[in-house]
Design goal:
alpha/beta; Nucleotidyltransferase, domain 5; 3 domains; six-stranded mixed β-sheet; five-stranded mixed β-sheet; 14 strands; 47% helix
């Protein structure tokens, strides 16, 4: 019997909230999430004036940690790692809290520095985006501190931690439930500018290409802005984004509302309404200071970084993880979560990509690496609908792909991958189909071509026994037909039937019949790698 991958958990003890993630480690591919929980505990409430965590805060925090540890062990977690940030590291009585957690939860809390927090946040957020050759600036606004990082695909270039947080600033400038004036808000902004002035000069020297933000304040503001201005959503990707102009208008509305009205703002997290003005003052001021015109929101953060840092402790594992890339890693995580048949999926992808290249050599399409990549992902996920039901599993695959949080993709790319999986068994893509209405004519044609290729490739491994080791596609000019050669030393009758039953879309698009033959491996060209 195959041994289960190790299960472990991470607890992120923040100033505002405590978060839990329980995961199963996957060899070379990071981890699969089994459970996630979050509780607002306000660990830093009342602390920043006295440098003491209150007895109630210690009680709330240790109780939540104990409950989260119980949940993690219920999933079979073999190890629980817990990191504490600003509220704990600055409290003079932090040892009391750490000891209480040790007694109640039987876990050791590691109190980390602001710079280490920034490093882990960058690891978590950057693992969910496809930066390419770009540099990104990331701001993570917590309850007690704000971490600012600049990094690229390979490494971080700047790490800093500012003593600016939504709870910290609110306890200094926004303590009542009233509405605030522009002058009162400006005082908070001036404090932020004074605190971040030196960092601003460093950022100007390092430079960046795109802006990103994470943690609760920024996620909440992103949702409020999206509700206020739905047509202004950035259509380039799954991750929401907003402009400095939209943020400024939203913040001006928020601080002019009393607390009870603020709670009712569409998109507002009610548990954050009393500290959102303080968090907004930090974000707006930093975006202005750093000249960030658009901010992309990430829901990943410290907890994800803790998990990855723990998972990839071996250098070889870290290198393997980085080589895979965020997009492919995300696809594989979805496929694994659906208990996909890995060998069949990989072999179908191999055959599909060989067909893609053979057709390109014949001049039947001029698609490149981007389209080839989408075909690969469609082949990997084409059968994941079996996780729900074999009957009409192509429809289930479409739903799972379309509604999963695939990282590094934009909406159009996910639409294409999902639709190719949908049409891998039967049906001809048509403009009137509701699932194709968001795609252009050229994109619908791409779906049809990739689906035709995938449909034939699926037939080539009809038995799921990986009998066909390679293929060759020829166009016979004397009779205007295609000849597909399957290289195998096995009895491939099921594979022949599979191709014959799946060639309809191929023949329709490429306007010629497809014939099949099987020849021994000894006659095969050198296998593609």
């Amino acid at each position: 019997m195959k041994a289960e991958s190790p299960i472990f958990a991470a607890i992120d003890i923040g100033t505002n909230s405590i978060r839990l993630a329980v995961v199963r480690k996957e060899a070379g591919q990071g981890f699969t999430t089994l459970a996630q929980h979050r509780e607002v505990v306000r660990l830093g409430e009342g602390e920043f004036d006295t440098n003491q965590m209150t007895p109630d805060a210690i009680k709330r925090g240790s109780l939540v940690c104990a409950k989260f540890a119980e949940v993690a062990r219920g999933f079979g977690a073999q190890e629980i790692i817990a990191f504490a940030t600003s509220a704990t590291r600055e409290a003079e009585n932090r040892d009391e809290f750490v000891e209480r957690v040790r007694e109640q939860a039987d876990i050791e809390v590691r109190v980390i520095s602001g710079v280490e927090e920034a490093r882990l946040i960058w690891l978590g957020v950057s693992s969910g985006i496809d930066l390419g050759k770009r540099k990104a600036i990331l701001m993570d606004i917590g309850g007690g501190s704000t971490e600012v990082i600049i990094g690229n695909k390979q490494e971080y270039l700047l790490l800093d931690s500012l003593k600016l947080g939504a709870i910290r600033l609110s306890s200094r400038f926004f303590t009542s439930a009233k509405a605030y004036t522009a002058e009162e808000f400006a005082q908070a902004q001036e404090y932020v500018r004074a605190t971040a002035g030196q960092l601003s000069r460093k950022i100007g020297q390092v430079g960046f290409d795109i802006g990103m933000g994470s943690a609760g304040t920024i996620v909440t503001l992103g949702e409020i802005i999206a509700r206020r201005n739905p047509e202004g959503r950035d259509g380039a990707g799954r991750q929401p984004s907003f402009t400095l102009r939209d943020l400024r208008a939203t913040v001006e509305t928020l601080y002019r509302l009393p607390l009870e009205e603020r709670r009712r703002v569409p998109g507002m997290d009610a548990n954050r309404a009393d500290i959102i003005v303080g968090g907004s003052a930090i974000l707006l001021t930093l975006m202005e200071m750093f000249h960030i015109e658009r901010l992309t929101v990430s829901e990943r953060g410290l907890r994800d970084g803790i998990l990855l840092d723990h998972t990839l402790r071996e250098e070889e594992e870290r290198e393997q993880y980085q080589e895979v890339g965020v997009r492919r890693r995300s696809i594989l995580q979805l496929a694994r979560a659906c208990n996909y048949e890995g060998e069949h999926a990989a072999h179908t992808s191999f055959i599909a990509l060989r067909l893609f290249e053979e057709l390109k050599k014949l001049g039947e399409h001029d698609y490149g690496l981007a389209e080839r990549e989408l075909l690969d992902y469609s082949a990997i996920t084409h059968d994941i609908g079996n996780f729900l039901s074999h009957s009409n599993h192509q429809k289930h695959a479409y739903y799972l792909i379309r509604n999963s949080d695939l990282l590094g993709f934009n909406d159009t790319e996910i639409d294409i991958v999902a639709n190719v999986a949908l049409y891998h068994r039967k049906g001809f893509p048509k403009k009137k189909h509701e699932n194709l209405m968001n795609l252009s004519k050229a994109e619908r044609r791409l779906v049809a071509v990739l689906a035709a290729i995938l449909r034939v490739a699926e037939g080539v491994d009809r038995s799921h026994l990986l009998l066909v080791k390679d293929i060759r596609l020829e166009r016979l000019s004397n009779s205007r037909r295609y000849l597909l050669t399957l290289f195998s030393d096995a009895d491939c009758q099921m594979e022949i039937w599979g191709v014959q039953n799946n060639r309809d879309l191929f023949e329709f698009l490429f306007e010629a019949p497809l014939h099949i033959q099987v020849v021994p491996l000894s006659e095969a060209p050198k296998l593609a790698t």
